[in-house]
Specification:
With 814 residues, the chain is mainly alpha-helical. Among the domains are: 202 residues, 5 helical Cullin repeat like (Up-down Bundle); 54 residues, no CATH class; 99 residues, Ribosomal Protein S5, domain 2 (2-Layer Sandwich); 78 residues, Winged helix-like DNA-binding domain superfamily/Winged helix DNA-binding domain (Arc Repressor Mutant, subunit A, Orthogonal Bundle), CATH 1.10.10.10. The protein is 62% helix and 5% strand. It contains 31 helices and 9 strands. Helix 4 crosses helix 8. This is Cullin.
Length: 814
């Protein structure tokens, strides 16, 4: 069309008024000229035409009420031209059998390349026709602008450009004459599938054809109002259906390989690919349903198959610390709606941790007992006196006791290592997810409390880090170990049982001077105080106070001796408040000290009475130790022995060479209980360093035995430690005794809690009372319902409570 279209010569009006039709001019001639121009425009010959002239023709037809002829005639010409384009340009490029393939793979190699090229040619043909058509329609829109302004509005029909789009839809995309629609949808799907199979396609061509579908409304109203388009109506549903079929089949195929990490990598790759596909050449509207579709077919039905896949699933990933694989699993499982994926992961994690914990518990159950009969104290390589051993002593090799302690410590270390492992995974793989953390903690709490000896083992582990004589540790290492044990402490339900063991172990460290650091000891108590409160640590702090006051009293006692005369031995005394210390430690054990020691203890008794009135000292020989120099035939040795052993050795000071003392003689002179005396004699006559000779020889001490001083004893060591001790890991009998004592304490605690609650509430129902008591005591232990019921009955019998007229309601009696 000439350049005069759409412009005017300078100085002249832009548009002349229409000339009136004369007899020589008819509407028929006008339409003939205009229709010829329309054909020229469609044939790309617009440059030869005058825009002004043909605009005036269209204006004239509308002005003289022939707008319908102009409108419908133009549509017919456009339709005719579209049919011609379809036949000449599109139909010859139809791909071979493009509609016969389903959702499966299309094969590779030369066939795939050829299919991609065929599809590209066809799509380019559709694109060419679209560009031809839209270019023509823009020019026609300009020529017929007056018609659009006046006629279409009055006739309530789409403007000519919109009508042209509808014609393209009906004559090309949804043509009834040619199967263009079938080939177009199939070819688009085929191109997508080829790319999914790893082939290369021309994305720009697909993008341009998709844009055509996006711009075409499904009908004239949608075209006019921007409603539902052909892409959403015709392509997307079939695309999603084919995608669902493809990925459902791929999931089955990939799962059969039995490689969970590879499966997850494929899912991750597919999600990224489909997202990129939607972004680059499909519609962004397709991305959400497509991503959901992938999750529904690749993840949701196969969560457990992925998690529990033999040899490659969650357990194997955890075994080999495959953080990237675990992170990928977590991230992908989060996509499953309603937290179904995360819940499945949490359940699998908890199950895995519990299985690992069960294995740790089973390994600990196989550890050797502290004594050969399972209920007797033995020899502990740490050399700490056993303050509560009873009964006949039987020899236990140091190695078995050491193995028992080692197994206990190994249990704690294994649990800590497992906790560290999952803490690392929680942060690095699971993004610190609180719900995942809760499941991990629940699993640890479950298997830790399945081990009835967990409180004892944890206390032993702390003892190992706080005492002297172990492998040198820095303050930072000790602090880190204690921080970790607090984490395990939180998992314990029987915290009262841990408190009992911790008091015993702390008492031993303090009394035998075995604490590596006073600051570390107090720091650990402070940590327990933060966790449990003042009541839990009150007695522990009292033990520290006793030791501090005892040290101050020791200095005062030395000053006292300077004023009142010396004693034959150097004496150091720890004065313990009985209510602070474990009863097994401070339980009275009768003993006759002998003249030498009696003189020293008598002097301290006078000193103590001069400072305190109304207090009574009970001497505990079982808790003390002594350093004594003993002359043998070969040389003298400095012996470190228990106080009981010193008492026995002093008996032989007045005995002639080779003269013996019978077991009954020694018992009569020392007044020691059989259990203490037997262990003492066993340590002196049957252990590694035999400073006494037992007649007859043997490892067991019997009332008929006799003992003599072993003047021929030799050792390369100048200083020797000889102490009767027991394994720090409890034997079965000791555990039974401990459990009985714990149960007794719990009965008192439950009754005290019931009274405290009822005193405050005055009247409560049975269920509310049980619930409140269980809640208040849960920080120390989990009382059973039966225990609470029995204690309620006991309080009713003792008239602390009474039943009211209402069934199941109790009243407090002041």
């Amino acid at each position: 069309m000439s350049s005069s279209m759409g412009s005017a010569r300078r100085g002249k009006p832009k548009m002349r008024p229409p000339r009136k039709l004369g007899p020589e001019t008819s509407i028929k001639d006008t339409w003939t000229k205009l229709s010829a121009a329309i054909r020229e425009i469609q044939n790309h010959n617009a440059s030869k035409l005058s825009f002004e002239e043909h605009y005036r023709y269209a204006h004239t037809m509308v002005l003289f009420k022939h707008g319908d002829q102009l409108y419908n005639g133009t549509k017919e010409l456009v339709a005719e031209h579209l049919d011609q384009l379809a036949q000449e340009i599109i139909v010859p490029t139809f791909p071979r059998s493009s509609g016969t393939h389903g959702a499966g793979r299309l094969g590779g190699g030369a066939e795939a390349v050829e299919r991609a090229m065929e599809g590209d040619r066809f799509l380019k043909a559709v694109k060419q026709v679209w560009e031809d058509h839209t270019g023509s329609m823009r020019k026609l829109q300009a020529v017929l602008k007056y018609m659009d302004k006046v006629y279409t509005a009055a006739a309530e029909v789409p403007m000519i450009y919109e009508a042209g789009m509808s014609l393209f839809l009906n004559r090309i995309i949804r043509s009834t004459k040619y199967p263009i629609h079938t080939h177009l949808i199939a070819t688009l799907l085929s191109q997508v599938q080829l790319e999914r199979d790893g082939e290369t396609i021309t994305r720009s061509t697909v993008r341009e054809c998709v844009d055509i579908l996006l711009r075409l409304g499904v009908d004239e109203r949608a075209q006019r109002e921007g409603g539902r388009n052909v892409y959403l109506a015709d392509f997307e549903p079939e695309f999603l259906r084919r995608s669902a079929e493809f990925y459902a089949a791929e999931a089955v195929e990939m799962l059969e390989t039995g490689d969970a990490p590879n499966y997850l990598r494929n899912v991750e790759r597919r999600l990224a690919e489909e997202s990129g596909r939607s972004s680059h050449y499909l519609s962004s509207l397709t991305d959400p349903p497509l991503q959901q579709l992938l999750v529904e077919h690749l993840l949701t039905p196969h969560l457990n198959s992925i998690l529990y896949m033999p040899g490659t699933g969650l357990v194997t990933m955890v075994d080999h610390d495959r953080i990237p694989d675990l992170r990928r699993m977590y991230t992908l499982f989060l996509r499953v709606p309603m937290e179904v994926g995360k819940d499945a992961l949490r359940i699998a994690l908890r199950s895995d941790i519990e299985e690992r914990g069960k294995a740790i518990n089973e390994a600990a159950e196989q550890m050797p007992l502290a004594g050969p009969s399972g209920d007797q104290p033995g020899m502990d390589v740490d050399g700490e006196a056993d303050p509560k051993g009873k009964g006949k002593a039987k020899a236990t090799t140091p190695s078995s006791a050491a193995n028992a302690l080692s197994s206990a410590l190994r249990w704690v270390q294994d649990v800590l290592n497992l906790k560290d492992k999952f803490d690392t995974m929680l942060e690095q793989a699971f993004s610190g997810d609180k719900t995942v953390q809760t499941s991990i903690n629940e699993a640890f709490q479950s298997f830790i409390n399945l081990n009835p000896r967990a409180p004892e083992y944890l206390s032993l582990y702390i003892d190992e880090h706080l005492k002297k004589g172990t492998k040198a540790k820095s303050d930072d290492e000790i602090e880190l170990a204690l921080e970790k044990t607090i984490i395990l402490f939180r998992f314990l339900t029987d915290k009262d049982k841990f408190e009992r063991y911790y008091k015993i172990h702390l008492a031993r460290r303090l009394l035998y001077g075995r604490s590596a650091s006073d600051d570390a000891e107090r720091g650990m108590v402070a940590k327990l105080k933060v966790e449990m409160g003042f009541q839990f640590t009150q007695k522990l702090e009292g033990m520290f106070t006793d030791m501090r006051i005892s040290a101050e009293s020791g200095n005062a006692f030395r000053n006292y001796l300077g004023r009142h005369g010396s004693i034959p031995v150097e004496l150091s005394v720890n004065v313990l408040t009985a209510s602070y210390w474990p009863q097994t430690i401070v339980a009275s054990s009768p003993c006759t000290f002998g003249p030498l020691l009696a003189e020293a203890t008598g002097a301290y008794q006078k000193f103590y009475d001069s400072r305190h009135s109304g207090r009574r000292l009970t001497w505990q020989g079982a808790l003390g130790s002594a350093d004594v120099r003993v002359r043998f035939k070969a040389r003298s040795h400095d012996l470190n022995v228990s106080t009981h052993a010193l008492i026995v050795l002093l008996l032989f000071e007045e005995v002639e060479d080779e003269q013996t003392l019978s077991y009954l003689d020694i018992k009569s002179a020392t007044n020691l209980p059989d259990g203490d005396l037997q262990r003492t004699l066993q340590s002196l006559a049957c252990g590694k360093f035999r400073v006494l000779t037992k007649i007859p020889k043997g490892r067991d001490v019997n009332p008929t035995d006799k003992f003599a001083f072993n003047d021929g004893f030799t050792s390369p060591l100048a200083r020797i430690k000889i102490m009767q001790v027991a394994s720090k890991v409890e034997s079965n009998k000791e555990r039974e005794d401990t459990q009985e004592q714990v149960d007794e304490e719990r009965r008192h605690m439950v009754e005290a809690c019931i009274v405290r609650v009822m005193k405050n509430r005055k009247q409560m129902s049975h269920n509310d009372l049980i619930s409140e008591v269980a809640h208040q005591l849960s920080t120390r232990f989990m009382p059973s319902v039966n225990l609470i019921k029995k204690r309620i009955e006991g309080l009713i019998d003792r008239e602390y409570l009474e039943r009211t007229g209402d069934i199941g309601v109790y009243r407090y009696l002041a």
